[in-house]
Amino acid sequence: MTLQISFTLNGRPTTVDVEPATLVAELLREQLNLTGTHIGCDTSQCGACVVHLDGLPVKSCTLLAPALAGATLLTIEGLQGAPGSNQMHPMQEAFREHHGLQCGFCTPGMLMTAVALATEKPDLTEADVRHGLEGNICRCTGYQNIVVSVMAGAAAMNAAKNAGNGE
Length: 167
Hints:
InterPro entries: 2Fe-2S-bd (IPR002888), 2Fe-2S-bd_dom_sf (IPR036884), 2Fe-2S_ferredoxin-like_sf (IPR036010), 2Fe-2S_ferredoxin-type (IPR001041), Beta-grasp_dom_sf (IPR012675), Diverse_Oxidoreductases (IPR051452). Keywords: 2Fe-2S, Iron, Iron-sulfur, Metal-binding, Oxidoreductase. This is (2Fe-2S)-binding protein. The chain has 167 residues and is of the alpha+beta class. A 5-stranded mixed beta sheet has the order 2-1-5-3-4, with helices on one face. 35% of the residues lie in helices and 15% in strands. Helix 2 runs antiparallel to helix 5 and helix 3 packs across helix 5.
């Protein structure tokens, strides 16, 4: 039996037929061909599959696709810089500039978690970042450059927000 669900995906209305037991990560990767969301553990421990559901970070490897009905979903493919520009999101730019990645497998989940952290609390401290990233595992780095990247990205997001408000 399949269910038809409609939701907003990366700013676009989307309707799909899914089996009730389909995980959001599977839907994204296998049915919608959005392979930026990675599956690293299937147990909600690594954070490589983090997406934003109605503005909140969730691990898509443990969320059933029917939960998307009527919701708004943002994946790494939908993360972007200023509307109408070809720029990267400020957090992506910070990860690039401050060497916050190595192999890149954990990066989409790290970025999505980092954006949520910075949106929730624009003036992040190192302790905030380290605590906020506890659900994301990187097997390549020592996390120092990731922490520096998140703090720089948060500052850039805050500056862009303030510039947009005329402050």
